[in-house]
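Tutorial handout. Part one gives the primary structure; part two gives the three-dimensional structure as tokens.
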Amino acid sequence: MNKNKTYGKRILPGFGLTMGITVAMLSLLILIPLSSILLYSFHMSAKEFLALILRPNVRQAFLTSASCALIAAVINCIFGLNLAWILVRYDFPGKRLMDAMIELPFALPTSVAGITLTKMYSDQGVLGKLLLKAGIEVSYTKTGIVIAMVFIGIPFVVRALQPVLEKLPKSLEEAGEMSGAGRGYIFRRIILPELMPSLLTGFGLALARGIGEYGSVIYISGNSEKQGTQVVSYIIMQKLNSGNVDYEGAAAIALVLLFISFLLLFFVGIMQAAAGRRTIQ
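Part two.
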């Protein structure tokens, strides 16, 4: 009986206090700010809301953000998988340094990254000159937006894949080789299915980050409505920084972004649950 009582005790007491602090901080930092977006959006009628979202410049900004973020997320999946594979499966000089550099987009201020990328890929930049000779213009184009989104999104894919690759038994590959399967077949039919939930998780996180990104894309995009290089975050900041501040309009556009992000994170949650079930099995 005493044994059962011992197991019934909580190791860390004070559930009520800790839960209260957690809920208070969650409310102050997340729930209340998000609720304010809803409140400001409700100041507009449904007709005004739709008219704002369907404006040509706003619609084009959503299309630019979504399409560039999608392309960047696909690129990140390809190169992120390759990078994670190298970091997990091979030992080479500078491996720890390369692994640490993956975190740079998280630590580096996005505005600094945007200015640096703009300078590098401009007509007078080191990389920009070389690409311009090949007929590829980067700065102030959608190509530049994609590059900036690749920069800030690749850590999500690499960090999502690394733990799975580390736990993936090499016996699966050896079994495929013993059965006479080629490397391509082993990767497609044995390795890739095991990595797919984590790969889709990284894809979803990179996509969500790219759609709402501001600092790293604001300089390299050029923000030209005529060329369609305005992103959604720029439209929001434009409404907040103009002489006639439009909180309601900014909140309405942010609400759509919030809904898109929620759907993507819900998708990520499903992928993580699938990965957990696969690990348990």
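Part three, for discussion. DSSP finds 13 helices and no strands in the chain. The longest helix spans residues 56-89.
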